Amino acid sequence: MAERAHPEDPGFQEGSPYRANLFKRYAFASHFTAGKVALDVPCGVGWGTSLLIAARRIGIDICPDAIAYAKAHYTGIDFLVGDMADIPLKAGSVDVVVCLEGFEHVDKATGERFLAEAARVLRPDGLLVMTVPAVLPGGTHSGNPHHLNEPSVEELKELLAGAFRTES
């Protein structure tokens, strides 16, 4: 998915593979958010957050302009300016944390802080739904200059094991 995807972007018009991917990822996440309190971080301009099926949706992004866009275009969603490494929510306040294609846009230390924050804001039976490009054995970085950290599959498993039970 492209950075800061929004419906007016020419690359995301009807029939675009980028649009199809955005909808596919959020449909996948919605399987886990239905009837729940869901946090989408980073939410960008809120388009993906608006696609989540949840009892309550919260979107957080570090960019004030993105949050202003989200608030102007999508109602019934709580949008907050905030850092994924310091989530401005109470401990145990959400059922599901959704992070789709955001983890790779921060350095490793910030990513580690995000995982700790995600674990903190989740209820004890909460769930992290995350997609991230991971480098397969023998593979290399995608080459996307916006991707500051693409962990290997093993690194990602180790990072997640610190705060989450993982299933493959």
Task: Detail the topology: elements first, then pairings.
Layout lengths: L16 H17 L3 E4 L6 H5 L4 E6 L2 H10 L4 E4 L12 E7 L7 H14 E10 L21 H9 L7
Parallel strand pairs: 1-2, 1-4, 2-3, 4-5
Name the descriptors.
168 residues; alpha/beta; 5-stranded parallel β-sheet; 5 strands; 18% strand
Description:
This protein has 168 residues and is of the alpha/beta class. It has helices spanning 17-33, 47-51, 64-73, 108-121, 153-161; strands spanning 37-40, 56-61, 78-81, 94-100, 122-131. Helix content is 33%, strand content 18%.
Classification by helices and strands: alpha/beta
Helical coverage, percent range: 25-40%
Instruction: Give the biggest beta sheet.
Output: 5 strands, parallel
Number of helices: 5
Mean pLDDT: 86
Low-confidence stretches: none
Strand order of the largest sheet: 3-2-1-4-5
User: Into which percentage range does the β-strand content fall?
Assistant: 15-25%
What is this entry, summarized?
The protein has 168 residues and is α/β, with parallel strands linked by helices.
